[in-house]
Write a structure and sequence with these properties.
Number of domains: 2
Helix content: 25-40%
CATH architecture of the largest domain: 3-Layer(aba) Sandwich
Strand order of the largest sheet: 8-7-6-9-10-13-12
CATH superfamily of the largest domain: Vaccinia Virus protein VP39
Number of strands: 19
């Protein structure tokens, strides 16, 4: 173990164990993206760690060069899934989809790994009548989930937790893990625990930001210390097969800037969809199993950051008042990569009660509620959670109706005026 929050440096790929790792992006020293501060001074003085991304030549997994102690990252977590209306809608569509594809019935057990405040399982219970168990290490979120009627085990996902679920609730028909697989250091143990827990014809459903979209849409701001891996289907399939499991279906999803929903079952328990081979073939054909794509991407990201800094700084020099919307982890990566602080971005608007009155890590930018858009509106609002731009623009129509403009930073700087579409 090294000093600070780093528990280990990555010298071998976490999926295949290979040591042919190539660094292709270095964003410098960064603070923990969700570690909000109580003052601007505290925010600016936060400890920083190297933010570097490595590519594995053997299996094509991208991964950070260091691992931060997960207890420091997740034991107290400010993000709440239930605040995000777009995510709740996504969960409803998911519930109906898996009911049909997996034959879920009323009373079947569904386990959600890192289920946050129980948002997904609340929807599944309402829509499908299933039994539900949430597993999440954040004590504050577990309390909210329990209050919403979702039984919660306050823990990281482990083999022991899997055994506890089987003992107390039975074997799940479905284990969901949405936007969490990329956060996990020991992916092998993660999937193995699910295998030991699942019913024979059950499924582990992973949903994670897709490595192809990560590159194609220049989503460098999704790099933060919670996101240890940037994942293609190829290494995921390899991991499943190493554990005598199989990927039997893959579905593209629009959420989080482009995600994939991957279904894994026990060997020969499910018919394998043609989509699996189609995804693998396209990844290879488009060059994502070759380091050259990633090294070229590095140049694109350098140019993108330079342009963001130039465009926003010019607006500021011309007297514009600029604010951000959504004190998200991706927003904190972008703000720190651009070296913005409160002299450039006056404040960040957010709807999460736990974030209001606090300060963005590294930058010291204050986080405020949305009433400021009426009382002290900016000329430009940078949508830091650009993946939910449509929802944010629709919910701030009063601001734009009075002439307020939006800035979309990814995949390229873009200004949206009143009446414009975000696409």
């Amino acid at each position: 173990m090294t000093s600070g929050g780093i528990i280990r440096e990555i010298n071998h790929c976490r999926i295949c164990g290979g040591d042919k790792l190539v660094k292709y992006l270095d964003l410098g020293m960064m603070p923990l993206a969700n570690n909000l501060a109580d003052s601007a001074a505290e925010a600016k003085a936060m400890q920083r760690y190297p933010m570097q991304v490595l590519y594995c030549r053997d299996c094509s997994l991208s991964q950070l060069s260091v691992v931060i102690d997960p207890r420091e990252l997740f034991s107290k977590y400010a993000y709440r899934s239930s605040i995000n209306r777009a995510y709740l809608h996504h969960c409803r569509e998911m519930a109906l989809s898996v009911r049909n594809s997996l034959g879920l019935r009323e009373g079947d057990l569904v386990v959600d790994i890192a289920g946050n405040d129980g948002a997904l399982l609340s929807v599944f219970k309402d829509e499908l009548g299933v039994r539900a168990v949430n597993v999440d290490p954040a004590e504050n979120l577990a309390e909210i989930a329990e209050a919403a009627g979702v039984p919660t085990i306050t823990s990281f996902w482990t083999a022991d937790v899997a055994k506890q679920i089987v003992s107390e609730y039975g074997r799940p028909k479905l284990i969901t893990a949405t936007n969490v697989f990329a956060h996990v250091d020991n992916l092998r143990n993660f999937v193995a625990a699910a295998k030991d827990c699942l019913d024979d014809d059950g499924a582990l459903m992973l949903e994670f930001p897709y490595g192809v979209d990560f590159i194609e849409h220049r989503e460098f701001d999704t790099i933060y210390f919670e996101h240890l891996s940037y994942i293609l289907l190829q290494p995921t399939k390899r991991l499943a097969e190493d554990l005598d499991m199989q990927v039997f279906d893959v579905q593209k999803q629009a959420i989080h800037g482009g995600s994939v929903r991957v279904f894994i079952g026990k060997q020969d328990a499910h018919e394998v969809s043609p989509s699996v081979a189609e995804f693998i073939t396209k990844e290879a054909a488009d060059g994502y199993h070759d380091v050259a794509v990633y090294e070229n991407w590095k140049k694109e990201i350098r140019a993108l950051i330079y342009d963001l800094v130039s465009q926003i700084s010019n607006l500021k020099k011309n007297g514009a008042k600029i604010a951000g919307f959504a004190a998200s982890a991706k927003g904190n990566t972008l703000l720190n990569a651009c070296q913005f602080d409160s002299s450039t971005i006056d404040y960040i608007v957010d709807d999460t009660p736990e974030k209001i009155g606090r300060f963005s890590p590294g930058t010291g930018i204050p986080i405020v509620d949305r009433t400021v858009l009426t009382n002290d509106p900016p000329d430009y609002l940078v949508i830091l959670a650009w993946n939910f731009a449509d929802v944010i623009i629709a919910s701030t129509s009063e601001y734009s109706g009075k002439g307020g403009k939006y800035i979309i930073p990814i995949p390229a700087f873009k200004i949206i005026g009143p009446g414009d579409a975000s696409e």
